[in-house]
Design goal:
Layout lengths: L9 E4 L2 E4 L2 H19 L4 E4 L6 H15 L4 E2 L7 H11 L8 H5 L3 E5 L3 H4 L1 H12 L3 E5 L12 E3 L6 H14 L5 H7 E2 L1 H8 L4 H8 L3 H13 L3 E5 L1 H4 L4 H15 L8 E4 L6 H6 L6 E2 L3 E2 L3 H11 L11 H9 L5 E5 L3 H4 L3 H9 L3 E6 L11 E4 L3 H4 L2 E4 L4 E5 L12 H11 L9 H11 L8 H7 L2 E2 L22 H4 L3 E2 L18 E6 L24 E3 L1 H7 L5 E7 L2 E9 L7 E5 L28 E11 L4
Parallel strand pairs: 3-4, 3-13, 5-6, 5-9, 6-7, 8-19, 9-10, 13-14, 14-15, 20-24, 21-23
Antiparallel strand pairs: 1-2, 1-15, 11-12, 16-17, 17-18, 20-25, 21-24, 22-23, 22-25
Helix pairs in contact: 1-20, 2-20, 2-21, 3-13, 7-10, 7-11, 7-13, 10-11
């Protein structure tokens, strides 16, 4: 489906959206927000910020929530994907970014891609992997599917969905049992090793093989290769995080790096690959409910006081609701107004039918976007924005923590306005006289408050082609890798030790039964982008639309041929899609994407079971059944 660019504000009258002037739309938006806060309090408001917009926009958006409204209820689609990565890395190391640079990927001796089809989901990053492979690096891929990434691997470990912790524990147990731990690093830079070693002791390769489906000899080979490598990179994406225990999955991988000393030095690191162009930057800018810009904890009085002095605000001394908690608050009637910038939760959230009902019940929904998405169709006010990647000035932050300039290349269509200008117009209507004459003014305000960005002037970013954080001064650059302090000889310089965290293996929430015997996992394909709003209007010779991918043996048992339409049913609903045969799936495993929700709403059958720490849903492990309906069509 091709979406038409928004150029005229819309307001809802008599149940229908109609065109309006900018003044009328902004007045309506501000009045609804003010009424909510007046009648129900600041925490009845939630801000959905945008991981595809600039750092500057995300900074102003979270400032709007905190300084104008007085709530910390701000989040973005970071919650949908890598919130467990941020939570796990922050728990162990104090900051939630990947630890290495792309150049270090190229210089590694061993790369482990765990739950990551980077060839299709992160193709630019995968070019760095291929450079390493071509110069002799070994590539291990841990994935339930034989993806296009796995096809490049030296070894493919085909585990059962949801058994990542069991596998990680078995790799750890083998490293310990073989005497391959980095004892010097463990003794000097970590804590909790003995409890961790005792916990993983039962996970022999043979026991883990029965639980995970990965042969014992492959578990042993990965353990020895990872422990013996001079430079090893452990990379993951949503195959690790989009589970009910996603944070525990991340912690299980971090434990492997602590065990072997593969963190805090050049060439060895831990890297969650971020999917949206600025999902790292959105979190860095404070568009999350528990941290202010620069990943500074809201609970620290000295941090709040610094921002309050600058903003003239009174930031609440408590964490706000993250995205999942905001949806739960909608169920309770406690959150009744949402300002959504560039987010389409009606189609991107798990159990999307339930999400739609929640959004329909809001008393006031303002959507700021470039298209009339399915979420925008429910809004009371729609505000046409600019496309951040080509019509705005600012910066983005990528997966290696590199902040880069974004320059305006095109004028926005007449009628659309810059995101920051819209936010400032609303702030002024709500009693805060904000004016930013250029994006650089926003950036300079932010870096004056965020020590890890302080040295990143626009001029330096331009001169150096981007800078990785942290960059605390304007006359120096930090190493490309994080946490080198852990290798320091001086205990004072090393600081707090990195803890091993004991985590428990738990199977997926959506149980397989005789009624729902197949496991559905979801992911991306190279030709399309997220819910298809931006990519659906462009043709691609690679695109085949949505399919239900099945192992040929499963299809034969179900009496299904390639191209034949089948009904896919979970405990939440049913959809229909044509069958595609994929021998890279083991029997019992099915695969679909979420790229075509206007035709096949896959997220209407995924489960909303969420990680208790990060709030991310278990998109990767739904229980389904597949029924033949006899409506055949040619395979695409």
């Amino acid at each position: 489906m091709a979406y038409t660019r928004l150029t005229t504000p819309l307001v809802r009258d008599g149940g229908e959206l109609r065109p309006a002037s900018w003044d009328e739309a902004l007045d309506r938006a501000a009045e609804g927000i003010a009424e909510t806060v007046r009648e129900r309090g600041a925490d009845a408001f939630g801000m959905f910020s945008c991981a595809r917009s600039t750092n500057e926009m995300n900074y102003v958006a979270q400032k709007f929530a905190r300084a104008v409204i007085g709530t910390n209820n701000v989040d973005s689609c970071n919650r949908t994907c890598h919130a467990p990565s941020v939570a796990g890395l922050a728990q162990v190391f104090g900051s939630g970014g990947g630890t290495s640079s792309y150049q270090e990927i190229e210089d590694a001796d061993l790369i482990v891609m765990w739950g990551s089809n980077a060839r299709e989901a992160h193709p630019i990053f995968f070019h760095h992997v291929l450079k390493a492979v071509r110069r002799g690096a070994r590539l291990f891929v841990v994935d339930p599917r034989r993806t296009s990434t796995a096809q490049w691997a030296d070894r493919w470990l085909q585990l059962d969905v949801g058994t990542d912790i069991a596998l990680a524990h078995a790799v750890a147990r083998q490293i310990i049992a073989s005497g391959l731990v980095n004892r010097t690093f463990i003794d000097r830079a970590t804590e909790g090793f003995d409890d961790y070693a005792a916990d993983v002791a039962k996970w022999t390769p043979e026991v883990a093989a029965l639980e995970t489906g990965v042969p014992a000899e492959l578990i042993e080979e990965l353990a020895h290769a990872y422990a013996n490598a001079d430079r090893a990179q452990l990379c993951w994406t949503l195959g690790i995080t989009e589970h009910h225990n996603g944070t525990d999955n991340v912690l299980a991988l971090i434990n492997l790096a602590l065990l072997t000393g593969h963190v805090g030095r050049y060439g060895s690191g831990l890297n969650p690959l971020r999917g949206q162009n600025n999902v790292q930057g959105g979190g860095d800018m404070g568009a999350i409910p528990n941290r202010l810009p620069g990943f500074q904890d809201i609970l620290l009085p000295e941090v709040r006081e610094k921002f309050d002095r600058s903003w003239g605000s009174a930031i609440p001394p408590r964490y706000g609701w993250h995205l999942t908690q905001m949806f739960e608050a909608m169920d309770r009637g406690e959150l009744t107004a949402v300002y959504a910038i560039g987010e389409n939760p009606v189609q991107s959230e798990a159990d999307s039918g339930r999400t739609r009902k929640r959004m329909e019940n809001l008393r006031h929904l303002v959507v700021q976007d470039i298209f009339l998405t399915k979420t925008a169709e429910l809004a009371h006010v729609v505000l046409p924005a600019t496309a951040a990647w080509c019509e705005s000035e600012g910066t983005f932050t990528n997966s290696e923590r590199r902040v880069q300039r974004v320059r305006k290349a095109l004028d926005a269509p007449e009628g659309a306005r810059d995101d920051i200008d819209i936010l400032c117009e609303l702030a002024r209507r709500l009693g805060h006289d904000w004016h930013y004459d250029r994006a650089e003014a926003v950036w300079d305000e932010m870096r004056a408050l965020s020590p890890m960005h302080a040295g990143m002037t626009y001029q330096r970013l331009a001169d150096l082609g981007g800078i990785q954080w942290p960059c605390p001064t304007e006359d120096g650059l930090e190493p490309s890798y994080l946490h080198s302090r852990l290798w320091a000889d001086d205990p004072a310089e090393r600081g707090d030790p990195a803890p091993f965290v004991v985590v428990e293996h738990r199977r997926p929430v959506d149980e397989l039964t005789a009624e729902f015997p197949l496991r559905l996992t979801t992911g991306r394909r190279l030709d399309s982008y997220n819910t298809g709003v931006q990519s659906g209007g462009f043709s691609s010779p690679m695109r085949r639309g949505e399919t239900l991918d099945l192992n040929p043996a499963d299809a034969e048992a179900l009496g299904l041929a390639a191209g034949e339409r089948a009904r896919i049913t979970s405990r939440r609903g049913s959809i229909v899609a044509p069958v595609r045969l994929d021998p890279g799936l083991r029997p019992g495993l099915a695969f679909m994407t979420f790229h075509f929700p206007d035709e096949v709403d896959v997220n209407s059958i995924t489960i909303e079971a969420t990680d208790p720490v990060a709030g991310t849903a278990e998109y990767k492990a739904s229980a389904i059944r597949v029924d033949r309906i006899g409506d055949a069509e040619p395979a695409a």
